[in-house]
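G., the chain you wanted modeled:
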Amino acid sequence: MRLRNLPFALAVLSCGFVPTASAQQTSTVVTQNPTAVMLAARSVALLSGGRQIADVTLTGNATRVAGSDTGSGTATLKALGTSSSRIDLSLSDGTFSEVRTFPNGVPEGRWLAPNGSYNRMVMHNCFTDAAWFFPALTVLSQASNPNLSITYVGPGTKNGIAVEHLQFAHSSGAQVPGFGDPLLTLSAINVYLDSSSLLPVAFAFDTHPDNNALLNIPVEVYFSNYQAVNGAQVPFHIQKFLNGSLFLDLTIQSAALNSGLTVSAFSAN
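Predicted structure as tokens:
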């Protein structure tokens, strides 16, 4: 199959790709390294304070850098479970919003356009963590998912900190000849845990242009200044880098856990 035809086997469905004439259903073997699973479980126990977190609302200040444009103002970030999130930025250079949901088992995303309407995100950019800004509601907490591959890459350093490097990726079971399972690539997330505290130092994954799922644009998210909130550990400083440049700098001022958010909070309006 020629790569230009990969868009696709992206007739996407509940948690992966619906096979087309050029994709075949196979019994892809998902592996979960015991060391990686243990490290993820210990990290989540620390992040959650040993209790179930259903939702979170973070508020604070934000600086957004897009090329030569820089805007500063306030930010509100919400997440419900591991599949719904909402980011609202009210900045000096405009209002910016992004919503991620999982209706009927299909991941979706929308972003606020300058004209005030919401545009749909392309499907191939909707497979990484919706709640990337709140580690307790990410792949770290999904080790029981039989379709989640978990790899222990090994010890290393990240941002000058000694870390344990894990990699997570979802499998769809659909194989594209000459490419493999597209979801394993599109959903891959590298997680770096502080070797001493086991709190996340950074996440790294790829985003892609709307018209090219094969072109990887690196994204890195750095977490620091963890503070205890009702027993949970919440990063109060979050930085998001896009293609090596700082894109979003968040300083959290307050965090509310299990406030009773519902799916209505994640409508694009």
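Residues 1-25 have pLDDT under 50 and may be disordered.

Shout if anything looks off.
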